[in-house]
UniProtKB/TrEMBL annotation:
Protein name, per record: Flagellar protein FlgN
Region named Disordered: 141-165
Pfam families recorded: FlgN
Entry keywords, A to Z: Bacterial flagellum biogenesis
The species this protein was found in: Caryophanon latum
Listed GO biological process terms: bacterial-type flagellum assembly
Biased composition, class Polar residues, residue ranges: 142-165
Length: 165
């Protein structure tokens, strides 16, 4: 297994992660605008990116495993780029380290953006629930009744909207 093929796969992984980061940034804007259709499109795009990243990651692991075996190293179940750097020739170690650093930076930025998006969606859901609570009040009696017949007394639901209108 050649190092060039592994480097090519790592570059593709970095490009895909950057592209996914762009989708996440756009998703933040869609969330701010409360565009549900746009959010669905962003989620589909994210799923496509993630599937491609998973395929490339599996390919990278196979390539690194083959390379390590060819160099006489005993690879782990999921070989890392750090293990590859240790086994790489001296002239390629610096380039691999820089590539690893860039990939880690993109992944960290993705994590931060996803955390932000998750918090924004959670706050939107809280707002929706509060609004629903205000419009549709809860029944006042939440205790068990003392009715011996086994049936709870029917409570009349109150609503601020006239459903027959």
């Amino acid at each position: 297994m050649s190092m060039d093929k592994i480097v090519s796969t790592l570059e593709k992984l970095e490009r895909l992660h950057r592209s996914l980061l762009d989708v996440c940034v756009k998703k933040t804007e869609v969330i701010k605008e409360s565009d549900i259709e746009g959010l669905n499109n962003m989620l589909k795009s994210e799923q496509t990116h993630i599937a491609a990243i998973e395929r490339l990651e599996q390919q990278r692991q196979v390539e690194v495993t083959d390379y390590l075996r060819a160099k006489g190293f005993a690879p782990t179940e999921a070989p890392t780029v750090a293990q590859l750097i240790e086994a790489a020739p001296t002239d390629q170690k610096e380039a691999l380290q820089q590539m690893r650093t860039r990939l880690i930076a993109v992944i960290d930025e993705l994590k931060k953006r996803n955390d932000l998006n998750q918090k924004m969606i959670f706050q939107s859901l809280q707002f929706v629930n509060i609004t629903l609570d205000l419009v549709q009040p809860r029944p006042e009696q939440m205790n068990y009744s003392s009715d011996i017949g086994g049936q709870a007394p029917q409570q009349q639901k109150k609503s601020y909207f006239d459903s027959q209108a």
